[in-house]
């Protein structure tokens, strides 16, 4: 407030000047804070060789040693003094490495293994163990099994020790040791899992087979409802160079192996004989990332254990013989009456077979209603009964059309042979209104001419020709 007095200055001017002063102080503080925070970045940026300022040869203020060929000035910023804290130390623990034993599994002596044991009589037990546990004869039992003092849940077989004071040379050379198989690990990695189609649906229990050779997981289509599948074609090449294709894929479903261990995935659909789901490498990789540990008798996840089950399936495929019998019983018929009694959806009620014919209308023709010539009481009763039957079967329906055509009965030779007269309707006025005939009947000569090149023949019986 240079050249002004407080006594002569109004309150509005004083208020505005105070606000401008405070704003100026805030801007200066923000500027200084920005310089303080970006000082470390500028210090590192100045160390880059392309940003360094080179000294001139005749610059007396250069402090670079004379031995250096490149004279570059370095700008150093003073670091803020801070309290020095001790550095954190990392402690490492020695890893436990299990070494392979060098002691014989049978006689307990060092220097050889059970398959090379000089005690030929005692070495016969090796063949019994390998035959009972499906282990190769050339494998070292010392690296596969470990001896226990008492029987536990992990015990696989038990050897009976017959100690005797007699000399081994007098014993029977064909003597066999008592071998009892207690618990064998299942060779087929199959577990019981639950599939949730959606968040609020009940789980579906299936038997899952682990196959590391499968790139994608495949599910039996009978497990999920048809609304959960979408068309999707994917082709695979098997190990024998044969091709295998799938036609459908499921919506994302949740697969639960353990509590709090779910995997959301889309499964391919294909019929699997004797299997519900084949768990491929795509799901196995996700289980591995969740730290699910495979063992010889099941899967381990934290404190939960999922044992292997016997090869089974919860969804059986219907045999071909039963399907054939069902098709013959439900679809095949000896007559039209038998067919109508078995077919719940007749052909004339199936919307897939409805055809819409876009006719060109003749605008010069107007709707006509001709007077009926009259029928005998016998023909009128017959027509009323026939129309009621056709309407009950759904072949005809009441109409409110502006057109009315004449109807009468015909009793020709074919009708006389059949023993029933035929109802005929004269649609000539209506045909004149529909000018073009896009679906006319083919010529008889043209039909026989096309028979020579035809490969497929079909027959369709109509209830009435008119």
Automatic annotation (TrEMBL):
The keyword Transmembrane helix is assigned to this record: no
Pfam families noted in UniProt: RVP (PF00077), zf-CCHC (PF00098)
Keywords: Hydrolase, Metal-binding, Zinc, Zinc-finger
Residue ranges occupied by any CCHC-type domain in the UniProt entry: 103-119
Record's keyword annotation contains Repeat: no
An annotated Gene Ontology molecular function: hydrolase activity
Listed name of the protein: CCHC-type domain-containing protein
Organism: Abeliophyllum distichum
